[in-house]
Amino acid sequence: MAWTTKIRRFALVAGVTTLLGQVSEARVARVDFGDTNFANSGEIFNTSDTTFGTGSGSMLFDLNFGSGAQRYDYCFNGNGFVSFVVSGGTCGLSGAPTGDYVAPFLSTLTTGGNTLSSFGLVDSVHSGSALDPFVVASATSAYRFIWDATDTAGNRILTELLLLDKGAGNFGLIFEYGSPLFGIDGAPATGQQIVHLGTNVAGPTNGPFPSTTDYTYSVVNGVCATCTGGGTVTVPEPSTLLLVSCGLLMLPFLRRRRNLLNFPAA
Known about the structure:
By secondary structure, the chain is mainly β.
């Protein structure tokens, strides 16, 4: 695909500094394949740091999961999550997650050619308008992890985790789904959202995940504002995930048999 294609994220970038939990906005949030035009987008991800497929690397800023700010290595797993281990540690590129991890779409996935991770900068202060242009000096370090994949039900999946440095181990997380560039709107009910970082736990939350929702978390001083804390997540085996997904896909048919005209809100 052409790397000159840019999906703009003005509203997202302007709102990142006020991440206080999971919020919903009436706009389209899209997975972002960007170029290096910072003036138009407010972000820049160096293509020389981009890795297609899955892989691991060392974080370039500290993270605090509740035991103090420290440097981690990341593992970009093909099954829709990123795990974090101590520097020099090991982690798998496939299989179920363990330890500290974030999953925008946990599922058994077959990754495609546009699956990538990269490091860059995001201006989360300015809106990018003519009166409030993006400023490189205000940009903060960021990682993006993008899964272009197919799940076991044959659905095309496009999802992104954006990890934003807030300094001193504080950071923000944003999950995004779908892109008109690929003709994909949102993500189906076949995957789960999970945040599992130290004692900060949120989820698992089952899909579907619309592209009109921004899923955002903020971790400050080791505490996630909307995570339950002290909990644990039991991750089902891939075969169990498939059975759950099939069950979720059958719900609309069961509801029709009961003559329900409107689905209840999630």
